[in-house]
Design goal:
single chain; four-stranded antiparallel sheet; 9 helices
Length: 276
């Protein structure tokens, strides 16, 4: 079957699909967003700065509506799709993404048996019931459910079991250790001209920071903190950063499973280290 046929089959089962480009990156699924020309970002959770009538980026584009899937606006994506993904949380599911043999061994020893799907490097264990998504909850283990997408690799083997407390507990510790904080943008020092206030230089820096976070495969917390630190060390003292820039960095981090509180905490810690 081609990508659209697979998507329609999933939709008929109540599973909201979306197309993926090469590299497992979502499309901008409307004509104005082809190739993300609208300025939207590949892994963002909601629509970008485009004026689309509905969210068309990332997991938010997933839909079980066959009319939308067959629509003209999605035609280019299905023609060029390298793979099909789905929104587990939208189907009431949670995917435990086991990225290597050690992670699989841990799951077999600690989690109840459920439907399993082989991946390139490991397995997806699929449970009935949604939860908060999070990356790197333990070595080689990601949780993909609400506000996330997973690649469709077939129906798998075995019956789907109910989501166990052992899986929910993987993100409980992370939430408990995050402390809320307030983020403020530094004012322009001395009211002088900002040396970085050029669209190209600043945009390149923010885009590179987004990519660094989005491409991280492990140590997500540390990567987010180091990226925030790098951005602030360059732009934090002159006041060129705006709320929109910070929101872009936070969005990239949350697309990798970070909580809003952890983003705020990491940003505040980076400012504190730099004396801002």
């Amino acid at each position: 079957m081609n990508a659209l046929d697979i998507a329609l089959s999933l939709a008929a089962s109540g599973i909201p699909p979306l197309p993926l480009r090469a590299g497992k990156v979502p499309f901008g699924n409307c004509p104005d967003c082809t190739g993300l020309a609208c300025g939207g970002r590949p892994n963002m959770k909601t629509a970008g700065p485009c004026a689309c009538p509905r969210p068309c980026h990332g997991w938010a584009a997933a839909t079980p509506d066959p009319t939308v899937l067959r629509s003209r606006g999605w035609a280019h994506a299905w023609r060029e799709a390298a793979a099909v993904a789905y929104h587990p949380g939208g189907a009431g599911l949670t995917v435990v993404d086991l990225d290597n043999a050690d992670a699989i061994a841990w799951a077999r020893a600690n989690l109840p048996a459920t439907q399993t799907v082989a991946t390139t490097r490991g397995e997806h264990w699929i449970y009935q019931g949604p939860m908060q998504s999070a990356n790197a909850v333990r070595p080689g283990v990601d949780i993909k459910s609400t506000m996330a997408y997973a690649r469709w690799l077939g129906p798998g083997i075995g019956a789907v079991a109910a989501l166990p407390d052992a899986v929910r507990a993987l993100t409980a510790k992370e939430r408990a250790t995050v402390r809320p904080a307030t983020v403020t943008v530094p004012a322009l020092t001395g009211g002088g001209q900002c040396l970085h206030r050029t669209p190209v230089y600043l945009e390149r820096g923010i885009t590179m920071a987004e990519l660094r976070i989005s491409e991280a495969r492990s140590a997500i917390h540390a990567t987010v903190y180091r990226t925030f630190l790098a951005v602030l060390s360059t732009h934090g003292r002159c006041g060129c950063l705006t709320d929109a820039h910070i929101a872009r960095l936070f969005t990239a981090a949350q697309a990798k499973g970070e909580t809003a509180r952890h983003c705020t905490d990491a940003w505040t810690n980076a400012r504190t280290r730099l004396g801002l």
